[in-house]
Amino acid sequence: MPIPAEEDRETPFVEVASGLRFPEGPVALDDGTFLVVEIERGTLTRVAADGTLSVVAELGGGPNGAAIGPDGRCYVCNNGGISFHAREGKLLPGFPPDNYAGGWIEAVDLETGKVERLYESCNGVSLKAPNDIVFDNAGGFWFTDIGKQYRDKRERDLGTLYYAKADGSLIREALFPLDGPNGVGLSPDGNTLYAAESYTGRVWAFDIESPGQLRDYSGRPPWRRGRVLWAASHYAMLDSLAVDAEGNIYVADIPMGGISIISPQGERIGKILLPDELTTNICFGGDDGCAMFITLSSTGRLVRVEGTRPGLQLNYGR
After folding, report:
1. Mind listing the pLDDT tens digit for each residue in 243-257?
2. Beta bridge partners of 315
3. What are the residues whose beta carbons fall under 8 Å from the beta carbon of 150, sequence distance 6 or more?
4. How many domains does the chain divide into?
5. CA-CA distance, 146 to 148, in Å (whole number)?
6. Does the N terminus or the C terminus of the chain have fewer Cβ atoms within 10 A?
7. Measured between alpha carbons, how far is 267 from 31 in angstroms, rounded to an integer?
8. CATH value at residue 55
9. Residue 186 CB contacts under 8 Å (≥ 6 apart), including other chains
Protein backbone atom coordinates (compact mmCIF):
# COMPACT_ATOMS: atom_id res chain seq x y z
CA MET A 1 0.00 0.00 0.00
CA PRO A 2 1.23 3.58 -0.56
CA ILE A 3 3.35 5.15 2.12
CA PRO A 4 2.24 8.74 2.91
CA ALA A 5 4.72 11.41 1.80
CA GLU A 6 4.71 12.97 5.26
CA GLU A 7 6.39 9.81 6.54
CA ASP A 8 9.46 10.51 4.38
CA ARG A 9 11.45 11.81 7.28
CA GLU A 10 14.31 10.33 9.23
CA THR A 11 13.39 7.84 11.93
CA PRO A 12 14.67 8.73 15.43
CA PHE A 13 17.56 6.50 16.50
CA VAL A 14 20.23 6.13 19.14
CA GLU A 15 23.81 5.32 18.19
CA VAL A 16 25.00 2.17 19.96
CA ALA A 17 28.52 1.97 18.48
CA SER A 18 30.64 3.75 15.90
CA GLY A 19 34.04 3.31 14.29
CA LEU A 20 33.14 -0.07 12.79
CA ARG A 21 34.61 -1.09 9.44
CA PHE A 22 31.54 -1.83 7.33
CA PRO A 23 29.48 -3.70 9.95
CA GLU A 24 26.79 -6.24 9.08
CA GLY A 25 25.19 -9.36 10.60
CA PRO A 26 24.10 -7.95 13.99
CA VAL A 27 23.26 -10.56 16.64
CA ALA A 28 21.68 -9.61 19.98
CA LEU A 29 23.00 -11.73 22.86
CA ASP A 30 21.23 -12.52 26.13
CA ASP A 31 23.80 -10.60 28.18
CA GLY A 32 22.92 -7.31 26.46
CA THR A 33 25.94 -7.25 24.17
CA PHE A 34 25.94 -7.63 20.41
CA LEU A 35 27.95 -9.36 17.78
CA VAL A 36 28.62 -7.78 14.40
CA VAL A 37 30.91 -8.72 11.58
CA GLU A 38 33.23 -6.07 10.20
CA ILE A 39 33.57 -6.97 6.54
CA GLU A 40 36.46 -4.65 5.69
CA ARG A 41 38.35 -5.55 8.88
CA GLY A 42 37.66 -9.29 8.54
CA THR A 43 36.54 -9.78 12.14
CA LEU A 44 33.69 -10.97 14.34
CA THR A 45 33.37 -8.15 16.88
CA ARG A 46 31.54 -7.82 20.19
CA VAL A 47 29.78 -4.54 21.00
CA ALA A 48 29.38 -3.88 24.74
CA ALA A 49 26.44 -1.99 26.20
CA ASP A 50 28.55 1.17 26.37
CA GLY A 51 29.65 0.83 22.72
CA THR A 52 33.09 -0.56 23.49
CA LEU A 53 34.37 -2.86 20.74
CA SER A 54 36.39 -6.05 21.19
CA VAL A 55 37.44 -8.60 18.58
CA VAL A 56 36.06 -12.10 19.18
CA ALA A 57 37.84 -13.69 16.20
CA GLU A 58 40.01 -12.72 13.25
CA LEU A 59 38.27 -14.35 10.28
CA GLY A 60 39.85 -12.83 7.20
CA GLY A 61 38.05 -12.78 3.86
CA GLY A 62 34.75 -10.95 4.11
CA PRO A 63 32.57 -12.09 7.04
CA ASN A 64 28.94 -11.28 6.24
CA GLY A 65 25.74 -12.73 7.79
CA ALA A 66 25.89 -14.32 11.26
CA ALA A 67 23.63 -16.39 13.52
CA ILE A 68 23.85 -18.37 16.75
CA GLY A 69 23.64 -22.14 16.19
CA PRO A 70 22.37 -25.02 18.35
CA ASP A 71 25.79 -25.47 19.97
CA GLY A 72 26.05 -21.81 20.99
CA ARG A 73 28.68 -21.00 18.41
CA CYS A 74 28.28 -18.08 16.00
CA TYR A 75 27.97 -19.28 12.41
CA VAL A 76 29.27 -16.85 9.81
CA CYS A 77 28.80 -16.59 6.07
CA ASN A 78 32.15 -15.46 4.64
CA ASN A 79 31.99 -13.92 1.16
CA GLY A 80 35.72 -14.39 0.59
CA GLY A 81 36.56 -10.71 0.55
CA ILE A 82 35.57 -7.38 -0.99
CA SER A 83 37.77 -4.43 -1.88
CA PHE A 84 36.80 -1.13 -0.25
CA HIS A 85 37.50 2.53 -0.91
CA ALA A 86 36.78 5.68 1.08
CA ARG A 87 34.77 8.53 -0.38
CA GLU A 88 33.44 11.60 1.38
CA GLY A 89 33.91 10.03 4.79
CA LYS A 90 32.16 6.80 3.87
CA LEU A 91 33.50 3.29 3.29
CA LEU A 92 32.19 1.84 0.05
CA PRO A 93 32.45 -1.77 -1.23
CA GLY A 94 33.81 -2.71 -4.64
CA PHE A 95 34.97 -5.77 -6.53
CA PRO A 96 36.71 -8.91 -5.19
CA PRO A 97 40.33 -8.32 -4.12
CA ASP A 98 43.26 -9.82 -6.00
CA ASN A 99 43.59 -12.64 -3.44
CA TYR A 100 39.94 -13.71 -3.67
CA ALA A 101 39.68 -17.51 -3.92
CA GLY A 102 36.06 -18.25 -2.97
CA GLY A 103 33.79 -18.06 0.04
CA TRP A 104 32.98 -20.34 2.96
CA ILE A 105 30.88 -21.04 6.05
CA GLU A 106 32.62 -20.97 9.44
CA ALA A 107 31.69 -21.29 13.11
CA VAL A 108 33.21 -19.32 16.00
CA ASP A 109 33.41 -20.42 19.64
CA LEU A 110 32.46 -17.22 21.50
CA GLU A 111 34.41 -18.20 24.62
CA THR A 112 37.73 -19.05 23.00
CA GLY A 113 37.57 -17.37 19.60
CA LYS A 114 38.41 -20.67 17.93
CA VAL A 115 37.25 -20.77 14.31
CA GLU A 116 36.20 -23.88 12.40
CA ARG A 117 35.69 -23.73 8.64
CA LEU A 118 32.76 -26.01 7.77
CA TYR A 119 31.98 -25.65 4.07
CA GLU A 120 33.81 -24.29 1.03
CA SER A 121 31.93 -26.12 -1.72
CA CYS A 122 28.81 -28.14 -2.52
CA ASN A 123 29.00 -31.17 -4.81
CA GLY A 124 32.25 -29.93 -6.29
CA VAL A 125 30.99 -26.37 -6.88
CA SER A 126 32.88 -23.73 -4.90
CA LEU A 127 30.92 -21.34 -2.74
CA LYS A 128 31.28 -17.88 -4.22
CA ALA A 129 30.02 -15.37 -1.66
CA PRO A 130 27.87 -16.74 1.19
CA ASN A 131 25.85 -13.82 2.48
CA ASP A 132 23.08 -14.43 5.02
CA ILE A 133 21.96 -17.28 7.28
CA VAL A 134 19.01 -18.50 9.35
CA PHE A 135 18.64 -21.64 11.50
CA ASP A 136 15.53 -23.83 11.51
CA ASN A 137 14.20 -25.76 14.50
CA ALA A 138 15.83 -28.98 13.27
CA GLY A 139 19.32 -27.56 13.86
CA GLY A 140 20.18 -26.96 10.22
CA PHE A 141 20.54 -23.66 8.45
CA TRP A 142 19.57 -22.02 5.19
CA PHE A 143 22.02 -19.62 3.61
CA THR A 144 22.26 -17.51 0.50
CA ASP A 145 25.23 -17.23 -1.84
CA ILE A 146 24.92 -13.93 -3.68
CA GLY A 147 27.90 -14.60 -5.98
CA LYS A 148 30.56 -12.13 -7.08
CA GLN A 149 30.70 -9.43 -9.69
CA TYR A 150 34.06 -9.32 -11.49
CA ARG A 151 35.60 -6.12 -12.79
CA ASP A 152 37.99 -7.70 -15.30
CA LYS A 153 35.41 -10.07 -16.85
CA ARG A 154 32.42 -7.68 -16.77
CA GLU A 155 30.27 -10.51 -15.46
CA ARG A 156 28.79 -11.80 -12.22
CA ASP A 157 27.82 -15.15 -10.76
CA LEU A 158 24.27 -16.38 -10.51
CA GLY A 159 23.21 -16.90 -6.92
CA THR A 160 22.14 -19.98 -4.97
CA LEU A 161 20.12 -20.91 -1.90
CA TYR A 162 21.68 -23.69 0.21
CA TYR A 163 20.78 -25.80 3.22
CA ALA A 164 23.41 -27.28 5.54
CA LYS A 165 23.83 -29.01 8.89
CA ALA A 166 25.64 -27.32 11.75
CA ASP A 167 28.00 -30.24 12.35
CA GLY A 168 29.59 -30.00 8.90
CA SER A 169 28.11 -33.29 7.69
CA LEU A 170 25.78 -32.08 4.93
CA ILE A 171 25.37 -29.25 2.47
CA ARG A 172 22.68 -29.24 -0.22
CA GLU A 173 21.79 -26.93 -3.09
CA ALA A 174 18.16 -25.98 -2.43
CA LEU A 175 17.49 -23.60 -5.32
CA PHE A 176 19.44 -22.30 -8.31
CA PRO A 177 19.53 -19.78 -9.87
CA LEU A 178 18.50 -16.67 -8.00
CA ASP A 179 19.47 -13.15 -9.02
CA GLY A 180 21.66 -11.95 -6.19
CA PRO A 181 20.02 -13.68 -3.19
CA ASN A 182 20.86 -11.80 -0.03
CA GLY A 183 18.64 -11.70 3.08
CA VAL A 184 17.01 -14.92 4.25
CA GLY A 185 14.49 -15.64 7.00
CA LEU A 186 11.70 -17.91 8.21
CA SER A 187 8.02 -17.32 8.93
CA PRO A 188 6.85 -17.71 12.56
CA ASP A 189 5.48 -21.21 11.86
CA GLY A 190 8.70 -22.24 10.09
CA ASN A 191 6.83 -23.31 6.95
CA THR A 192 7.85 -20.44 4.66
CA LEU A 193 11.33 -19.31 3.67
CA TYR A 194 11.85 -15.70 2.61
CA ALA A 195 14.73 -14.60 0.42
CA ALA A 196 15.51 -11.09 -0.83
CA GLU A 197 17.07 -10.68 -4.27
CA SER A 198 19.44 -7.73 -4.37
CA TYR A 199 19.49 -7.08 -8.09
CA THR A 200 15.75 -7.36 -8.78
CA GLY A 201 14.43 -5.67 -5.64
CA ARG A 202 12.14 -8.63 -4.95
CA VAL A 203 11.30 -10.65 -1.84
CA TRP A 204 10.49 -14.30 -2.63
CA ALA A 205 8.48 -16.73 -0.48
CA PHE A 206 9.10 -20.48 -0.74
CA ASP A 207 7.11 -23.32 0.83
CA ILE A 208 9.14 -25.70 3.04
CA GLU A 209 8.05 -29.33 2.92
CA SER A 210 10.56 -30.73 5.44
CA PRO A 211 13.86 -29.65 7.02
CA GLY A 212 16.13 -28.48 4.22
CA GLN A 213 13.59 -29.34 1.52
CA LEU A 214 11.56 -26.80 -0.44
CA ARG A 215 8.43 -27.64 -2.36
CA ASP A 216 9.45 -29.52 -5.51
CA TYR A 217 9.75 -26.93 -8.26
CA SER A 218 11.48 -29.20 -10.77
CA GLY A 219 9.92 -29.10 -14.21
CA ARG A 220 8.16 -25.83 -13.48
CA PRO A 221 8.94 -22.58 -15.32
CA PRO A 222 11.23 -20.20 -13.40
CA TRP A 223 8.41 -17.86 -12.42
CA ARG A 224 6.67 -20.69 -10.54
CA ARG A 225 9.59 -21.65 -8.34
CA GLY A 226 8.01 -19.72 -5.50
CA ARG A 227 5.91 -16.61 -4.89
CA VAL A 228 7.06 -13.05 -5.40
CA LEU A 229 5.86 -11.70 -2.08
CA TRP A 230 6.89 -8.11 -2.83
CA ALA A 231 8.56 -6.27 -5.69
CA ALA A 232 9.78 -2.73 -5.05
CA SER A 233 8.17 -0.06 -7.22
CA HIS A 234 11.29 2.11 -6.71
CA TYR A 235 14.90 1.27 -7.51
CA ALA A 236 15.99 -1.08 -4.75
CA MET A 237 19.00 -3.26 -4.07
CA LEU A 238 17.72 -5.35 -1.18
CA ASP A 239 20.05 -6.58 1.53
CA SER A 240 19.46 -8.56 4.74
CA LEU A 241 16.10 -9.16 6.40
CA ALA A 242 14.49 -10.03 9.73
CA VAL A 243 10.99 -11.16 10.70
CA ASP A 244 8.83 -9.98 13.59
CA ALA A 245 6.55 -12.09 15.78
CA GLU A 246 3.53 -11.22 13.61
CA GLY A 247 5.31 -12.44 10.48
CA ASN A 248 6.15 -9.07 8.94
CA ILE A 249 9.40 -8.92 6.99
CA TYR A 250 11.89 -6.09 7.58
CA VAL A 251 14.22 -5.86 4.60
CA ALA A 252 17.16 -3.47 4.20
CA ASP A 253 16.43 -1.26 1.20
CA ILE A 254 19.47 0.23 -0.58
CA PRO A 255 19.80 3.10 -1.60
CA MET A 256 16.60 4.24 0.15
CA GLY A 257 18.68 4.34 3.31
CA GLY A 258 16.55 2.26 5.62
CA ILE A 259 14.22 -0.68 6.09
CA SER A 260 11.03 -1.53 4.17
CA ILE A 261 8.43 -3.43 6.22
CA ILE A 262 6.43 -6.01 4.25
CA SER A 263 3.35 -7.81 5.55
CA PRO A 264 2.96 -11.60 5.12
CA GLN A 265 0.39 -10.71 2.43
CA GLY A 266 2.97 -8.79 0.42
CA GLU A 267 2.01 -5.20 1.24
CA ARG A 268 4.56 -2.56 2.14
CA ILE A 269 3.18 -1.37 5.45
CA GLY A 270 5.97 0.88 6.68
CA LYS A 271 9.52 2.06 6.37
CA ILE A 272 12.38 3.15 8.58
CA LEU A 273 14.52 5.93 7.14
CA LEU A 274 18.11 6.35 8.33
CA PRO A 275 21.05 8.56 7.27
CA ASP A 276 23.09 5.99 5.36
CA GLU A 277 22.33 4.76 1.85
CA LEU A 278 24.06 1.51 2.78
CA THR A 279 21.73 0.54 5.63
CA THR A 280 22.23 -3.21 5.39
CA ASN A 281 21.17 -5.45 8.31
CA ILE A 282 18.70 -5.59 11.18
CA CYS A 283 18.06 -7.70 14.28
CA PHE A 284 15.64 -7.39 17.20
CA GLY A 285 16.58 -7.10 20.86
CA GLY A 286 16.01 -5.09 24.01
CA ASP A 287 14.09 -6.08 27.15
CA ASP A 288 10.78 -6.50 25.31
CA GLY A 289 12.28 -7.63 21.99
CA CYS A 290 10.80 -4.61 20.17
CA ALA A 291 14.00 -2.62 19.71
CA MET A 292 15.61 -2.85 16.28
CA PHE A 293 19.39 -2.83 15.93
CA ILE A 294 20.47 -1.78 12.47
CA THR A 295 23.85 -1.51 10.76
CA LEU A 296 24.66 1.72 8.93
CA SER A 297 27.53 0.17 7.06
CA SER A 298 29.19 2.92 5.06
CA THR A 299 29.37 5.19 8.12
CA GLY A 300 30.41 2.34 10.45
CA ARG A 301 27.61 2.48 13.00
CA LEU A 302 25.23 0.21 14.89
CA VAL A 303 22.07 2.09 15.86
CA ARG A 304 18.93 1.40 17.88
CA VAL A 305 15.41 2.20 16.68
CA GLU A 306 12.43 1.73 19.01
CA GLY A 307 9.61 -0.39 17.61
CA THR A 308 6.16 -1.55 18.68
CA ARG A 309 6.25 -5.21 17.64
CA PRO A 310 8.67 -7.79 19.07
CA GLY A 311 10.98 -9.64 16.77
CA LEU A 312 10.42 -13.31 16.05
CA GLN A 313 12.17 -15.48 18.63
CA LEU A 314 15.01 -17.16 16.74
CA ASN A 315 15.52 -20.87 17.15
CA TYR A 316 18.90 -20.57 18.90
CA GLY A 317 19.20 -16.90 19.69
CA ARG A 318 17.12 -13.83 20.43
Report:
1. 999 999 999 999 999
2. none
3. 95, 96, 156
4. 1
5. 7
6. N
7. 35
8. 2.120.10.30
9. 134, 136, 142, 192, 193, 194, 243, 312
